[in-house]
Amino acid sequence: MRSLLCLFLLLAPAAARAKAFEFLAFGDMPYCSQNETPCADEQRLNVLIDRMNAAQPAFSVFVGDTKAGAEHCTDAVVADRTRRWFARFEHPLIYTPGDNEWTDCWQDRAGRFDPRERLALLRREFFPGPESLGRVTLPLERQADLDPGRRDFVENARWTYQGVVFATVHAVGSDNNRPPLQGPQPPGAAQEFPPRDAANTVWIEAAFAEAERNRAPALVFLFQADIFFRDRCGFGDYEGHVATRAALLEGARRYGRPVLLIHGDSHFFLVDLPLRGPDDRTLGNVTRMMVPGAEDIRAVRVRVDPEADQPFGFALLGDPARARGPSCP
């Protein structure tokens, strides 16, 4: 009997193991000067994209800011130039917007455009359906398709790769377009911010629920804003990110497994443990990785081993000539 049992175990198919894989993350580029033709950073970005294609990742994610804050938010910059370099990707590319391409477009230095109109342009141009950008595409689940009450939020996407759940969240710099208590008011911010902030919270909760339901070994969130800037630097607005941080904290405490937060906004590479619970103790299962950007035209190679206790590893890809270290403006 024992020999038959051993034979059965040898012949039975082994349970499928999730395979290790690599994806690339980058953001905050190219930052060109107004009317800079050709744009030097765009030329450097094209070199980086060639290297990203050669690396053959499972996919790449761009975490917002396709232009400098001082460039005018014209169609040629916000849509045409971005579309041109997005089209160079030979593998799936997922995009979540930043503040420079819509939130801050009302400012004089950006040409005084209507932020909500620019956001509508981004949604039409870069989020036409439930799949990624890139010459090879990846199917995505979108909040707009899953939640009938939030059909505007086509940019909030979710996908699963080798069992790991990924979700983009449209949280941007400039305090997430929350109307400031004092000073000039961004046009339409009082109407735009509340429903998107609420949608983001629901989307974060849904991603944790998806990961828990499928017993995902890890969960990755990707967004543009440095929502921990004030923790590091001791100043700056943060009220627009309170709900996002609370949803991430509560979900991660309940989930218990590794959570990775990837964002840009502050333009230097950083890996740390950013979240603290009500007892002020660091939440050990949440890692934050901030991508470099602006003049530092590099991407981050993220190695994922779903079977490992610590599934994430990081390495920089690109020319380090313009690298910058941690700073507070």
List descriptors:
alpha/beta; five-stranded mixed sheet; 12 strands; seven-stranded mixed sheet; single chain; about 325 residues
Instruction: Work out the number of β strands.
Output: 12
User: Would you tell me the structural class of the helices and strands?
Assistant: alpha/beta
Rg is 20 Å
Can you tell me the residue ranges where pLDDT is under 50 for at least 5 consecutive residues? Answer: 1-15
Largest sheet: 7 strands, mixed
Give me the number of helical elements: 8
The end-to-end distance, rounded to whole angstroms, is: 73 Å
Give the proportion of residues in helices: 25-40%
Strand arrangement within the widest β-sheet reads 4-5-6-7-8-10-9
Following the backbone from N to C, one meets helices and strands in this order, namely HEHEHEHEHEEHEHHEEEEE
The fraction of residues in strands falls at 15-25%
Taken from the alpha-carbon principal axes, the silhouette is globular
Task: Round the mean pLDDT to the nearest integer and report it.
Answer: 94
Summarize the structure in words:
- By secondary structure, this protein is of the alpha/beta class.
- Strands 4-5-6-7-8-10-9 form a 7-stranded mixed beta sheet.
- The N terminus is likely disordered.
Condensed summary:
The chain is α/β, with parallel strands linked by helices and 329 residues long. The chain is 30% helix and 17% strand. Helix 3 packs parallel to helix 4 (115-126) and helix 6 (189-213) packs parallel to helix 8 (242-255).
